[in-house]
Amino acid sequence: MYSVHKSEATVLDLKGRVVNVFIGADKWKSDHMTVGLTEVHPMTEMDPHAHDDKEEIIYVISGHGTAKVGDSVEPLEPDTAVIFPVGVPHSVKNEGRSPLTFVFMFNPPTDFTYAK
Q1: How do the pLDDT tens digits run along the chain, 116 residues long?
Q2: How many Å apart are CA 105 and CA 37, to the nearest integer?
Q3: CA-CA distance, 36 to 34, in Å (whole number)?
Q4: Residue 6 half-sphere exposure, CB side, CA atoms within 13 Å?
Q5: CATH code for 6-111?
Q6: Which of 4, 90, 95, 96 pairs with 66 at a CA distance of 20 to 30 A?
Q7: For residue 51, what are the contacts with CB-CB under 8 A and spacing of at least 6?
Q8: 78-81 long-range contacts, Cβ below 8 Å, gap at least 24?
Q9: Do residues 52 and 87 lie in contact, with contact meaning Cβ atoms separated by under 8 Å?
Q10: pTM of the model
């Protein structure tokens, strides 16, 4: 089996957001990436954090907000991609009244221990 439906994803209920890990979790391992979907609750900001050994890229599906990457504030809207470089503090803020939904990709894979 090489495909994963959202109903089969590993779900992490983290502060201010729900993370669905499609590839790179318990059942579906990858040697090189983690891929999933995050839904940031309305009017919520994720805690700033950095990944000392991972690069992260997000692609916004729906909603509006901002991403703080280092000292830069980047607008988030559908069809926007943002890179979070290795070691750079970042956070995502949902400024709307509906979920801000984005696909995330990590390389190398992550286990989300930084977020628990």
Answers
A1: 788 899 999 999 998 999 999 998 667 888 899 999 999 999 999 999 999 999 999 999 999 999 999 999 999 999 999 999 999 999 999 999 999 999 999 999 888 766 65
A2: 9
A3: 7
A4: 7
A5: 2.60.120.10
A6: 4
A7: 84, 86, 87, 106, 110, 114
A8: 81/57
A9: yes
A10: 0.92
Write down the residue that tokens 């209920």 correspond to.
Answer: 13
